[in-house]
């Protein structure tokens, strides 16, 4: 079957999709967007978390056919998503300013020097919340969405919001640090 | 495999009538696991995501008509007052991502004894609104679960909604798992006080082939509360009554040993949860009474 | 080149970014943007999908295999069984080559590969697998020591020819290592108290999040290029090439992104299967396990049964320790022999005891194969000896921590193996530090709005609002070896290049080190900055175009490959200074007389005087050195007495666990898990703490939830999924304050000490001790389940 939907603001079309395929498979294997990860394929680890019409879901448990006509945001689109959000917020300057900022910072992604990242992405790097990084994309999408809803979370709030995202490397402490850092920077308008 | 995408409820019913083996998929949180792990290859998948009606709820005078696909997250956020037991149960479902997708219709359709909604529905009192091209019928929740992962739906029926009694008193829900989040129930317990009818209802999950009520325990407690005038005098439930109630709840279980827990533990844990949820709800009832009296 | 093939990562930093600083990961941005290519992300035009058919029974003769129906399915390009293997070599293994690439005549464990399929879509491949008919004649299963060593026991492996068969009492014993020191019988007479106990340790899974995956691309020269997630490229290569019938130079390997490892990628998984299918079909073949298959796709931590006897005088000195450790190695040897060596040599823990009798064995059974996992044989023993230490202290009426400190080993202590510990061993100090850390507040779950269930046992499941909740505190300390032991030639290779790029001096570090998440790439770049004084360091992708870097295990990569990078940098520096002397030596006498350093892109004297800019020194030339580096040699343990200088370095961590237990429901909330660890020298403090917290959490997992459950009647795995094999979530994991001690080991580069494993040892017994403290129960098995806390097992 054919599935047509929007990913990170761009229309996408996938053909010859097997009816049992998940959104995760379509993103990873058909659309060249492997950022969402395939750690358990049973909704237990959160590594494939994406926003489906704004709502965080496990892409492995969404049948490909179910996303027809809908909007998906993946980790690959997180920076743009966050930037649009901050652009829309009246206190945070115009989206043009945002675009300028991004341009000014925009060195290549492989240099290790930062640029065009959302606050939560930058915080994960700065806080040492990334080790193997396989859980990272899902955690970022989930954490970003939580900070959108709850800009000033308590530790218990953070833990609850991220309780569907398994990490095997970090023991979660640096992830807690990262989300606290992102929240603090966000509230300072940095 | 064929993927059916009805745009409306009527189309969905027609599709199910035409293809009775079609497996409905809404949140996908059960069905997709089975497909991903090659446990199931249905001939047809019947996607219910496009049917907006299933995501809505109506709060009536006595009941809430809860659309089959209303996600657990919405129940937690919006129906805490009307359906406190189900809201608590919803909060224990898996993870935020799953709660954003899954709904009560899926729990009922799968009818796993471990489904988190079941004890809350049993305790609150509910009817399943099943519909087919032949018409609509209301299946009392007590008659809905017919065996391990089996329910009373006919092959051509879909779940449209659940009609759940609005809470007329405190409700509680507890679930034991071997992890502090994102865990399938080893066993679960729901309890609702119904001051209007002066009755108590229960629901037990994952401790018998189907979700069950602890009827003997309910009868005992109803009689004990009645005899002691507890509903009127607002006294604390005596420890001996609570213990007897807990023992009878444990006795209502018919559990198995499996990788998640032993039968013996399940019985024990149901007893503990029964006693605790009775205490919590009863204390809440007493507190509300005192507040009312104080105001009067 | 396929999509997702790794490219160079260049990191420049305005700061110095050398060792001792918490520089950030060079792959961090790629990882947070989703661009970092893990093995499962690889994609190639025209690629096929590989699928493995695995045995549905644990022990059986294969009567027949019929693949004809599978081959007939459109879209299926190959179906291979044992009979299709192209070379004479048809087995592989880390030390003992006992593992068939595909089952031959017999399967020895549940989930053993029987056939492999290549098809144009994963679903086609799955349907084909389902059409392969395998006729099994089931055999009785061997599941424990009694069934393995019974006189009439079936042999898991007949006709063993490995080096251990000569010294084991039964062919179903992989390896046995006794250690005898002093005279236990005589010493026991001095004991005022003797405490004996039996302990059981469950089977733990590494549960790395990135499933086993890789892409094999056939090459024009008849060879194959494998992109794969592994822990040791060259060890894989050594095992893969002979089975393919190819010389090693025709099997090129490149490390793709690795989503965690923890020992589970030391053995081969899909490597050979993907290469076989690629060579057979002439098409690239990708294999990605799902989580179900992953539970069968790698070895696990050995479950163990342990018997301990400790004696002590009434003033608190240990008189003797006797122990017997039985590890279940499962159907294939994997790393079992080395795990036995570790379990034995570290069996009494970080304590000074003169009279010791230890025996460790690993069994062959029909249970899932077990091998390397973080902590490697030292974990099981630590759980048992630390439980014993508490019991002895209690019997003596002594404080548990003081009793440990009284018996703690220190620098100069002689181990049961006769090895004198020749670097700091601050066991008592670590205990003192962890005990001195402030305690978490009581009843922290109470808030103005009542109990916050998220902070109580049961968490979101709303099982208690404080009822039945009792707090307990427990302590433990452990000892782990660093690096490969027992005479293994443990070396790493590094190639370092220095040149001018874009007007700036740049160093490129090329090793075959598997970056599995631990941060080796970060540290190697720091070493290069420190040694070569350049800001910008490029980390070349790890591949087999450079010599072996050894395994990313045994806490060894910072030490050994880090040592190799340091060594190669020093050689590069010599050559650069040589160039400088040639070009500029006549202009300044210091070129000949002073100690010269490379700093901030310049050649400077140790007095800080700048002699030349590296850009000018290099002047278009590139300096490149590839060199091996080894740590001090070790010796094998004597097979009869266990004596020998078997280890190169030891590392130590201590934990204090604070738990709250719902004593009625048997549910546990770990409130805090404090750790003190000596790391010698923290090359990257942020990463060090991250390693300690991660290791601590894996220890927590085995304490309260993690266990692969194998049915003792069928030897089949009952919970191969993340639904029923539970690892800690963020709500199960407490705050983990860490106190890092840095006492240099003068024998190691920069004085560093391997970090990654020690915290996995002591966190488990600390949590268990805390639960015992809360409940008063004996709890001789781990993980402890609600049943064990409520008498309903």
Automatic annotation (TrEMBL), chain A:
The keyword Heme belongs to this UniProt entry's keyword annotation: no
Domain 2Fe-2S ferredoxin-type: residue ranges: 1-78
Key word Translocase present: no
Superkingdom of this protein's organism: Bacteria
A Pfam match: Fer2_2
SUPFAM superfamilies linked: 2Fe-2S ferredoxin-like, CO dehydrogenase ISP C-domain like
Region (Disordered): 78-116
Swiss-Prot/TrEMBL keywords: 2Fe-2S, Iron, Iron-sulfur, Metal-binding, Oxidoreductase
Name listed for the protein in its UniProt record: Oxidoreductase
Automatic annotation (TrEMBL), chain B:
Domain FAD-binding PCMH-type intervals: 1-169
SMART domains hit by this protein: CO_deh_flav_C (SM01092)
Gene Ontology MF, one: FAD binding
Domain of life where this protein originates: Bacteria
Annotated Pfam families: CO_deh_flav_C (PF03450), FAD_binding_5 (PF00941)
Claim: Oxidoreductase is one of the keywords in the record: yes
Record's keyword terms, sorted: FAD, Flavoprotein, Oxidoreductase
Transmembrane segment boundaries: none
PANTHER family, per database record: XANTHINE DEHYDROGENASE SUBUNIT C-RELATED (PTHR42659)
Protein name: Carbon monoxide dehydrogenase
Source organism: Streptomyces shenzhenensis
TrEMBL record, chain C:
Domain Aldehyde oxidase/xanthine dehydrogenase a/b hammerhead: 33-140
Top-level division of the source organism's lineage: Bacteria
GO molecular function term, any single one: oxidoreductase activity
Disordered, as annotated region: 1-23
Pfam families in the cross-refs: Ald_Xan_dh_C, MoCoBD_1, MoCoBD_2
Family matches, as InterPro entries: Ald_Oxase/Xan_DH_a/b (IPR000674), Ald_Oxase/Xan_DH_a/b_sf (IPR036856), Ald_Oxase/xanthine_DH-like (IPR016208), AldOxase/xan_DH_MoCoBD1 (IPR008274), AldOxase/xan_DH_MoCoBD2 (IPR046867), AldOxase/xan_DH_Mopterin-bd_sf (IPR037165)
Official protein name in the record: Xanthine dehydrogenase subunit D
Organism in which the protein naturally occurs: Streptomyces shenzhenensis
